[in-house]
From TrEMBL, chain A:
Biological classification of the source: Bacteria, Bacillati, Actinomycetota, Actinomycetes, Micrococcales
NCBIfam families: oligo_HPY (TIGR01727)
Segments passing through the bilayer: 24-48
UniProt protein name: ABC transporter domain-containing protein
Coiled-coil annotated spans: none
Homology family: Belongs to the ABC transporter superfamily.
TrEMBL record, chain B:
Domain of life per record: Bacteria
Membrane-spanning residues: 9-29, 101-126, 147-167, 187-208, 245-271, 291-317
Name this protein carries in UniProt: Peptide ABC transporter permease
Keywords annotated in UniProt: Membrane, Transmembrane, Transmembrane helix, Transport
CDD domains: TM_PBP2
Amino acid sequence: MTEWSWGGILYWAQNSSALAFGAWWWFVPPGLCIALLGTALSLINFGIDEFINPRLRSAGIATRKGAKRAARASAAGIRRATGRTPRRALRRTDAAFTRGDVILQINDLVVDYGSADQPVRAVDGVSLTLRRGQVLGIAGESGSGKSTLAYAITRLHQPPAQITAGQLLYTGRDGETVDVLALDDRELTDFRWEELSIVFQSAMNALNPILRVGAQIEDAIEAHRPGMSGEERAERVRELMRLVGISADRVGAYPHELSGGMRQRVMIAIALALDPEIIIMDEPTTALDVVIQRQIVEKIMELKDRLGFSVIFITHDLSMLIELSDEIAIMYAGRVVETGAARDFYSSPQHPYSQGLLGSFPTLSGPKKTLTGIVGSPPDLRALPSGCPFRTRCPHAFEPCPVEDPPLLPIPTVRDADGDAPAPRAVACHLYTAQQAALAEGAAV
Amino acid sequence: MKGFLRRVAFYLITAWAAITLNFLLPRLIPGDPVTRMLDRFHGQLGPNAVFALRKLFGQTSDNIWDQYVDYWTRLLHGDFGVSFTSYPTPVTTIIGQGLPWTLGLIGVCTVLSFIIGTGLGAFVGWKRGTWVDGFIPVTTFLTSIPYFWFGLIVVYVFAVVLRWFPLSGGYTPGLTPGFNTDFIGSVVLHALLPSIAIIVSSIGYWLLGMRNMMITTLSEDYVLLARAKGLSARRILSTYAGRNALLPSLAGFALSLGFIVGGSIITEVVFNYPGIGYALFQAVQGQDYPLMQGIFFIITIAVLAANLVADLLYVILDPRTRQGA
Ligand SMILES: Nc1ncnc2c1ncn2[C@@H]1O[C@H](COP(=O)(O)OP(=O)(O)O)[C@@H](O)[C@H]1O
Ligand code: SF4
Ligand SMILES: [Mg+2]
């Protein structure tokens, strides 16, 4: 033994019973060094892990910071409910926002991802109206902020996402209006699923792989109806399964034992469990093949007519949306760039982006259109072009486009052939500035 | 059913390979170990033992196939030969004496540290971003400590200096082993110090693994959906996040069960504990080949059994593995 290593010192110390003779200095330092070195290496490893795995990272400090910032934001702009109000009898808000047929009113909603110094604005001042019993379709390329919006409406957004401004007003069947952003945790837990439920983008990921699908429907009922007996709950689960078109003897199946379409039906059954007024569906059919898509969409429409709930249907497939929606909003780079009645979108999409979207997909039924599509790729939200965010890809871009960001403003509408009252339309594009100005003048007169 | 049969076949083949290796190893030792050993024992070994020794090292006149058949026959009759160092005690007797101590101490501690470690890990993952993150550097440090060093320090401080705990053995000599309070109390007292050393130094491993899995699982859509449905925190923690996060830890746990026997050497040497590890240590020092061979056999069986347990646990906890079963 000519060279002294830490391990060697330990070995000799033990052999010559250094401890027994009280010669602890032979023994303690090398072990401590090894331990500290080991700790240092593991902590480096740990740091690398946190860095590489965004889930570990975002779950850490961001949770606290995000919560604090959210609290500050809400103190600044969003009113909070004070005190607990009993379920289903939530506080009334400004009567000005309550309109008879409006069930959900979204006003200037802003959702940011990340730190205060460099936030990514994934939803940028979105205002939308959902009416009772209707389908509001939201379309846009992937990355346009649709899912972020869906999570924000249900307040299921996770850090680093936070709602930094806006208002969400829900009007229940009893005519009472609730400020959803002001609900406290208890009220929110009651509100979600009773009034508003959601179907996630991927049924495979949204179902717990180790729990029978029946149990995953049942525990939603159990959480909200503690008084219900086990037998009643089981009966309700079977009823829901039949409702969405799965034979009731599949309650004991595990998610992996079901096909993609069946899993999506289970998701819908879960969303229906408490008979909510609104269901948000985030690309519920995207992962499915066309035939199954068709079946699921028809199922949703049938259930909607039967049960009377309203739907916010999100997809990147505008042609599908036109067939099933009452109203449509088009999102680009976190903003709504066009809204209008579904039938108007089919005959005359106004915004160049909507025209491009419609050209991107063949309609499920009806004549095939030429696929013109949209050139380029979705924008990087951290580096949006000046002025109109769409201008780098827009075939009609002209002088004002790089200078000014066009606001979403109403455009004139025409009575359709049946003489029905025209549905309001709005578009955010400089091509319509003159019409919009004329309309505003007309309204002012 | 087909998958199950395939598993069984896999275990049988692995066991066969390991046992055959155990047969071949002594035969691969270069030189003439038998003569060297006989010299060392100065004629204390009886003729039976000498014959057994020659048999063990393949120095009989039989061809290797006959030797192999003979080896299996003895194995199936539970005959591992006679130990040299404690001649003429049969190897099975020595193993039989040591095994309960090892299983009792290290087995219980392995299970305990897995349960406590994953439990704490689940909690720390659930409460991430709060003060509980302070657990991480502390447990990392405890895990990084060289184990025998930690054991010796513990022995020195608590057994030599403070004299709170006994220095060695499994129970106070003179007590009659059996179900009486004196004996059991003594066993617990003797096991306490090594238990603490084992649990403290291995708990961090489970804690960190479970914490990371927990955080990854908590960001799964199905956990978010569980929250959205309004489930109680307890139900989300157990049935949605916890059980899914636990699955990857199970394989590691099964392996550690398999290493109870093989990994017991350090603990039992440091704490002078009368288990299999201590017997193996003595067998290596005394070149007691029959005893070594017997213990290696036990280790093989333990590892395979542990893997079987892991497979079964998986089938119970993860329905996806039940497909086609
Ligand atoms: N976890 C996240 N952290 C930071 N930015 C994100 C995160 N998730 C989404 N984003 C940003 O939000 C934008 C909108 O994403 P998303 O709402 O998922 O769009 P969509 O559902 O329309 O495909 C993305 O382009 C991305 O830049
Ligand atoms: S504002 Fe200009 S760039 Fe933007 S969509 Fe209209 S025409 Fe195209
Ligand atoms: Mg999406």
